[in-house]
Amino acid sequence: MRTRATATSWDAWLSTRAAVRTAREMQRSDNSREALFDLASNDYLGLSSHPRVRHAAVNAVCSIGTGATASRVASGTWGIHRDLEAALSRYTGRSRALVFSSGYTANLGVLGALGGPGSLMLLDAHAHASLIDGARLSGAATSNFEHNDLDDLNAALRANAESTAGKPRVLVVVESLYSVLGDAAPLQPLAELCSHHGALLLIDEAHSLAAVPGGSAANAAGLAQAEHVLVTATLSKALGAQGGAVLLGGAQASLWREHLLNTARTFIFDTALAPAAAAAAHAALQLATEERITGLGANALMIRRLLSNEEHLAGRVEDAAGAVQSVRMKSPQQAILAAALLRERGIAVSCFRPPSVPDGISRLRLTAHAHQHPAELAGAVQAVARTIGEVES
User: Fold this and answer.
1) Helix runs in the chain, H state only
2) What SS3 state is found at 291?
3) 285-320 tens-digit pLDDT
4) What is the torsional sign of CA 153, 159, 160, 161?
5) Is the entire prediction scored with pTM above 0.90?
6) Could you give the maximum distance between any two Cα atoms of the chain, in Å?
7) Facing residues of 100 across strands?
8) Tens digits of per-residue pLDDT, 28-49?
9) What phi-psi label fits residue 355: left (phi over 0), alpha (psi between -120 and 50 degrees) or beta?
């Protein structure tokens, strides 16, 4: 029963939270991009609306149903899940895969399965929220190292090895491509450093699966069969579907898969990925060709060049390695205003501002898509540049 004291306490707290968000300019909204020119979504290859992907999803609904109806370890595993896992392994050059309901739950699950009091997790300072949450929930000791700083990571690994209280199991957690700055992790040197110290390396390929040459950053770095490298990915970005996966390589791949299947709580206790999403992702993998990925890279380069050529934006465009390009703004207020004006003008961009950005700098984020015509894309990017100039004048 809800007492007056309880109601008053929670109501006051809720009102206070709203006031704090407003004062800090942290209010968000669930914006739609319908009918807008898309420079905001993660549908990098434009496959979410591809006829073959749509038909695959519809066929799965008609033949299996709208939901998996149970967790994978109960009765929720269908043939489409196994087919998708086999296709992901082939596409990335890894030996085994395990599909989760989302990329977020994949990260929570694998980190939770590797945690405990005997583990140390060292996270890149720009790691995604799902990686941070997974590490915190894992029961492991956690620490950050400076972004893409191999010397700082080496010092942390050496300090753990030399300490009498050091942890026997160490996991280094990075992303292949980071979503704020758009920069790439030095995967090969990271893997070599981890191998030298006997540490595992977890690479989150959320922004690189089917979006970089070769289809996988880990594979391109020669790490497809590296036993001490674990890979997670999402199926909701370049593949335009939904879901997540853990990808495993080397002689111990099957053993690792069995460990995750039996210990990853977000796999054991979560209803399995919906058949329609699994079928859509499988179809999208077949369409995630080098030709499409090359087109994505060309459009990303065009966005970066057009923005960099604007005098008022000189030196403010990040040197991004992937599809996500961003412009540093002078203030959060101007970033919010520019994004709002662009929506009114028919263009959807993302607005990142503190505390969501690790370096405290507000940005407009423009995402490249392989299927957009270069002339239309150029017009939209030029409109972005003009709008930034307006709000800053």
Assistant:
1) 4-23, 51-63, 79-92, 103-114, 129-137, 150-162, 187-197, 217-220, 253-263, 265-268, 275-287, 290-308, 332-344, 374-392
2) helix
3) 999 999 999 999 999 999 999 999 999 999 999 999
4) positive
5) yes
6) 63
7) 244
8) 666 666 679 999 999 999 999 9
9) alpha
